[in-house]
Design goal:
Ribosomal Protein S5, domain 2, 3 helices, globular, 4 strands, about 110 residues, four-stranded mixed beta sheet, single chain, alpha+beta
Amino acid sequence: MNKEYRIKKNREIEALLKQNTRVANQHFALYYLHKPEAEHFRFAISVSRKWGTAVARNKIKRQLREIVRKKSLTAKVDFFIVVKTALKGSDYKDIDRSLTNLFARAKIIEGQDI
């Protein structure tokens, strides 16, 4: 996935948090903002140090980036994924199901069961 799909600037992430449009479940909090003028979606991921070592945090970020890449999202939206500590011990299939559920609730993807 190209870096143009990532949000890197703190002020852009803070703008997403300020809008306070969010959906959450036991594993993730997803802040989002629909931007019809954008060319494509952009996203950022946050994993707290409470989650574990740098190796564990990087692994979950890699898995999340792969899930987002496989979803072939077409929505013009910026979103910010916050990983909760309850996700520890979950396998890839559970992570995928949980994140897909949030995307459907936020109307980022369509046609998925909620």
